Amino acid sequence: MSMNLVYLLNFIQIVEWGNISKASAFLNIAQSALSRQIKSLEDSLGTKLLRRHSWGVEPTEDGKLLLEHARRIQKELNSVKESVQSNKDNPAGAVYLGVPSAYALSVVPPLLHRMRALYPNISVHIVEAFSGTVYEWLISGRLDMAILYKSNEHNPAVTSPFVEEDMVALGTAETLGEATEIAIRDLSQKKLITAWRPHIHRLTLDAAFVAAEVPFEPLLEIDSLPCMIEMAQRGEGIIIFPTSCVTRELNDGRLKAVPLRPNIRLSTVLCHTPNRQPTRAVTILTNTLQMLAAELGKKTGWSVSHK
């Protein structure tokens, strides 16, 4: 048995008007078409639904039973429409966003503030880790999207450009002295603190030293951004990171930043989980991140990537 949903809704109108002709005018449907719809419903249910009188029509006992169910269906349809409209005006959902440690402080607080203000019904869950770990979680489906350093490993179909920024030498005023810039080849003589391979920062530094044809032997290798920053503040060595990682330390004078020559530029992308259609909440978060990056560019040293 199959029943046309439109026929059911039109049946409600016929009963409420008590007249097929009046219902036909209200619905802007030919009276003969409405009569065929009623006949189709009666054939599907195997019973008469209307009694015809000189003044119009009224439902039979079976017709009253169908009317009760039809009104319930109509109510549910209205509820669906209201829910969809409400979600359109006030989107809801949950998004799990992976953020590399280097971007946690610069991105997460303003992002959460913006999302709470504009989209209070979207819940954003932040997962912070080094970029390689974030990528593994994204591929496994534990995350919906992530900020990742640009890599040939990433499927371009699920990525969009985010920001670009230069890496700089970071240390105390005593460690860096009066230098206004540092050549890559001169870094080999410094006490460098870096992440272990295969962290993207380390691989990027490796490539820069190879290009400069100088050896790269770091003093310490630590897979913890807070620890690396703390060691640099203590004067134990120099770290190489974008300034957005240490905005607070730079403002407080605990660290000094010196540009590198030639410069080392990092590019990042926003990446969605492969083989998963982005939800509306994910799309909204993506757009919000891109707008936020453009607004914060001057303060953080980011340039919005368009490639």
Characterization of this structure:
The protein has 307 residues and is of the alpha/beta class. The protein is 48% helix and 24% strand. It has helices spanning 5-17, 20-27, 31-45, 61-89, 104-118, 131-140, 173-176, 184-187, 200-212, 225-233, 247-251, 280-300, and strands at residues 50-53, 56-59, 93-100, 122-129, 145-149, 159-171, 182-183, 192-194, 220-221, 238-242, 256-272, 303-304. The strands form two sheets. Strands 3, 4, 5, 6, 7, 8, 9, 10, 11 and 12 form a ten-stranded mixed beta sheet that branches. Strands 1-2 form a two-stranded antiparallel ribbon. Helix 5 crosses helix 12. It is rod-shaped and about 105 Å long. The model has no long low-confidence stretch (mean pLDDT 88).
The gist of it:
This protein is of the alpha/beta class and 307 residues long. 48% of the residues lie in helices and 24% in strands. The longest helix has 29 residues, at 61-89.
How much β-strand is present in the residues? Answer: 15-25%
Q: What CATH first level of the largest domain would be assigned?
A: Alpha Beta
Poorly predicted ranges (pLDDT <50, ≥5 residues)?
Answer: none
Number of domain modules: 2
Q: How would you spell out the order of helices and strands?
A: HHHEEHEHEHEEHEHEHEHEHEHE
**CATH-derived architecture of the largest domain:** 3-Layer(aba) Sandwich
The residue fraction in helices comes out at 40-55%
Total number of β-strand segments? 12
Reported for the largest beta sheet, the result is: 10 strands, mixed
Helical stretch tally: 12
Find the CATH topology of the largest domain. Answer: D-Maltodextrin-Binding Protein, domain 2
Mean pLDDT: 88
Structural class given helices, strands, pairing? Answer: alpha/beta
From the alpha carbons, calculate the radius of gyration and give it in angstroms: 32 Å
Cα(first) to Cα(last) distance is 55 Å
Gross morphology? rod-shaped
